[in-house]
Design a protein that fits this description.
By secondary structure, the protein is α+β, with helices and mostly antiparallel strands. It folds into five domains: 2-115, no CATH class; 154-336, MyTH4 domain (Serine Threonine Protein Phosphatase 5, Tetratricopeptide repeat, Alpha Horseshoe); 341-448, Phosphatidylinositol 3-kinase Catalytic Subunit, Chain A, domain 1 (Ubiquitin-like (UB roll)); 454-479 and 483-561, Acyl-CoA Binding Protein; 570-676, Pleckstrin-homology domain (PH domain)/Phosphotyrosine-binding domain (PTB) (PH-domain like), CATH 2.30.29. It has helices at residues 2-21, 31-47, 51-79, 82-94, 100-115, 135-149, 165-169, 176-181, 200-217, 225-238, 243-254, 260-274, 284-297, 301-319, 329-333, 365-375, 427-437, 461-477, 486-501, 509-514, 523-526, 531-542, 550-561, 587-590, 655-676, and strands at 341-346, 352-359, 386-395, 419-420, 439-447, 570-576, 595-601, 604-608, 614-618, 623-628, 632-639, 644-651. The protein has a seven-stranded antiparallel beta sheet, covered by helices on one side. It is globular. Belongs to the TRAFAC class myosin-kinesin ATPase superfamily. Myosin family. It is found in: Cytoplasm. One of its GO terms (molecular function) is ATP binding. InterPro entries: Band_41_domain, FERM/acyl-CoA-bd_prot_sf, FERM_2, FERM_central, FERM_domain, IRS_PTB, MyTH4_dom, MyTH4_dom_sf.
Length: 677
């Protein structure tokens, strides 16, 4: 009898909470069920287990989720935080909650989207970090949102505002069955009516948009395809009620599309749309579901397009309506030249400036440098000396790809050094090139030009920090700067350790060795002493450094390395190609070994052996012309003794990089000479 009473208490508590769920429950509402379960657990210990207890325990967890979801929703609504609001709404909808606060939250979100200011000319941000939340919290919210959107109930065919296939085909006389079958799949003819349920005026817009889409994708021959894409974007930007229709039409044309070139252009329109206007709050998860599905299960370039779309869509959903902009025809035409990309940009020390930044095809390196300078809040007048570099990270590990097609090239054994991009280059071209070469890489922001007059301490601490990190990388990590004396090597190592450790710098030989003291010593001196010997030498500097301001320490370091003749150089490995005829070629060129390193800096071109022994130097005035191919670099050099010229040919995969850095230095030198004049 007592067991029956406990069962009745459990069932009554559950029924009460089920009724309260319709209007929303609080944590305190769970107390009767919690008490009933506690009583039932004691009864189960005496009389044995019973299924009603397990059912009640399961229901308690469900009710707890409801209570937590309601509390989070009310908190987000009160805070008017867009990211929290979206995350809380997603959880509430996932639990199929029907609450007044959920309706109010949806209305608030629409209001916030409508009043959000427009940032003209700035692409969607790379992450949710700009929302005012800590990065980890924003990233967690983003991942939660994706997990919810992945659910099967958000497949686009389940979108409530879709017409039925019968409604879509209603009025057709011929091929009615085929029209119904192709309701949500590719068709080369203009649709008879909109995919979503629209009024008469917007239905007309939908038919024109579909016609524009067919024209841009090449499925219907129409003039000026870029203007057709712009018309789609402008209509979506200006008419909110048809935005979901536009996204559905793109999805329709991408589904079962037999033409790869049409699919590529369809994804291009999708990339443009997600940067121009967001879908409605009701359609968000359906669009996210489709894009995530293609990211995870697509093939080839579709995966890259989907990754770009996902990041850009998340950014515009976070920023709100009005933060996108309609691209110009010229910007749309850039999609023919290269794809949109997601770029992660690093500093020299490996810290990330921006992760998965969506870059439209029209944004060249100069514009990206401007954006990075803004994010880093750089104020130094020398920011025009910054450049974007491509670091080669080796061959991609893809067992399906087969043998490396470049493994037998004449330059295959040469080390690939960081490639400086020109300001007019496009990072999307680099990604395409590296994909074809099957090479891993990363983008790094650092200084590209080091004219002697720029070697001074500025007022911008972060710019000075960047300059120091680059000098430390060159002198201590890469070993590109040869220090003439062990005393200078000791000073650099001590300063580098003091900057890294501060007052926590090791104070005993044993602690120094444990901290890998030898890794702070420039490579050309590192093996001349044991770690213990280096520790003893560097300890002598410790007390005089650990309390010095880090900015002053960095400046001391720079003053030492700036004395090196090779400071600020760009290094390239090459093989000398033997000429077919030695006639007219100076003896000093003929006597060069096969394996060479070419260094370019403000003073000109310098030729080294692989062991970093300087052999020859030439000012830029001695270089008459230059050019190359994918495997060779040719320099037409002036011979001062004969007043004639000769050709110096090298085997290298970095001909374009050397050509670009020569031109950058000559332009910079000439610009400075004009200013001085």
């Amino acid at each position: 009898k007592k067991v029956d009473e406990v069962k009745s208490q459990l069932q009554a508590s559950i029924k009460t909470l089920e009724t309260q769920c319709e209007s929303g429950i609080n944590a305190s509402d769970l107390n009767p069920l919690i008490q009933a379960i506690a009583t039932a657990e004691k009864m189960a210990e005496l009389s044995g287990d019973f299924p009603e207890l397990h059912d009640a325990q399961d229901m308690l967890e469900v009710f707890r989720k409801h209570a937590t979801a309601k509390a989070d929703l009310e908190k987000a609504y009160a805070a008017r935080d867009r990211v929290q609001l979206r995350a809380a709404m997603d959880v509430a909808q996932d639990l199929e909650m029907q609450l007044d606060v959920l309706v109010r939250a949806q209305e608030l979100l629409k209001e916030m989207d409508a009043t959000q200011g427009k940032m003209v000319g700035v692409p969607a941000g790379p992450s949710l970090q700009n929302a005012g939340q800590p990065y980890d919290a924003a990233e967690e919210a983003r991942q939660m949102r994706q997990e919810i959107a992945k659910q099967a109930r958000f497949d686009v065919k389940n979108y409530p505002n879709l017409r039925t296939a019968d409604d879509f085909a209603r009025g057709a006389v011929l091929n009615k069955t085929k029209i119904k079958e192709n309701f949500l799949t590719f068709q080369p003819m203009v649709i008879p009516k909109s995919i979503t349920d629209l009024n008469r005026e917007n239905n007309k817009l939908a038919l024109q948009i579909h016609k524009d889409l067919l024209g841009y994708m090449g499925d219907k021959q129409l003039p000026f395809p870029a203007m057709l894409a712009q018309d789609i974007l402008r209509k979506g930007f200006e008419h909110k009620p048809i935005r979901d229709e536009i996204y559905m039409l793109i999805i329709k044309q991408l589904s079962n599309n037999p033409r790869p070139e049409s699919v590529a252009k369809g994804w291009q329109v999708m990339c443009m749309c997600v940067g121009t206007f967001p879908p409605s709050p009701e359609f968000e998860n359906f669009l996210l579901h489709y894009i995530i599905e293609k990211r995870d299960r697509g093939r080839g370039a579709v995966i890259d397009y989907a990754r770009y779309c996902l990041r850009t869509l998340e950014a515009i959903l976070n920023s709100g309506d009005g933060t996108g902009f309609v691209p110009s025809v010229e910007e749309i035409l850039a999609y023919k030249e290269r794809p949109p990309i997601l770029a992660t940009i690093y500093l020299v020390d490996g810290n990330v400036i921006t992760e998965n930044l969506p870059l439209t095809p029209d944004l060249n390196v100069a514009k990206v440098l401007e954006m990075c300078s803004g994010w880093l809040d750089l104020k130094d007048s020398r920011i025009n000396t910054l450049g974007m570099f491509v670091y080669d990270l080796g061959e991609q590990e893809d067992p399906k790809a087969g043998a490396d097609p470049y493994a037998k090239a004449a330059y295959a054994d040469l080390k690939r050094t960081p490639r400086p991009l020109r300001n007019e280059d496009y990072m999307g071209d680099t990604i395409v090139q590296k994909a074809r070469q099957r090479r891993k890489f990363k983008f790094v922001l650092k200084r590209k030009l080091f004219l002697p007059k720029y070697n001074y301490r500025g007022e911008d601490p972060f710019f000075e920090r960047m300059t120091y990190l680059q000098a430390e990388d060159e002198a201590i990590i890469q070993g590109n700067l040869e220090l003439p004396s062990p005393e200078e090597a000791q000073q650099l190592a001590a300063i580098s350790m003091a900057v890294a450790f501060g007052e926590e710098m090791p104070d005993t030989m044993e602690a120094m060795v444990a901290a890998n003291v030898d890794e702070f010593v420039p490579p050309n001196w590192r093996k001349t002493k044991s770690p213990e010997e280096w520790a003893q030498l560097i300890l002598q500097f410790r007390d005089g450094l650990i309390f010095v301001d880090p900015d002053d320490l960095q400046d001391r370091f720079l003053q030492i390395v700036q004395k090196c003749p090779a400071y600020g150089s760009h290094w390239f490995y090459a093989h000398k190609m033997e000429p077919t005829s030695i006639s007219g070629i100076p003896q000093n060129i003929r006597q060069l070994p096969t394996d060479l390193i070419l260094a370019f800096n403000a003073e000109g071109m310098h030729i080294y052996t692989f062991s970093r022994k300087l052999l020859l130097s030439f000012p830029y005035s001695d270089i008459c012309r230059w050019g190359g191919s994918s495997s060779q670099f040719s320099l037409i050099m002036a011979d001062d003794q004969t007043s004639e010229s000769y050709e110096f040919v090298l085997v290298t995969s970095q001909a374009a990089d050397m050509a670009a850095i020569i031109l950058d230095h000559i332009r910079a030198i000439m610009a400075e000479q004009e200013l001085e004049a």
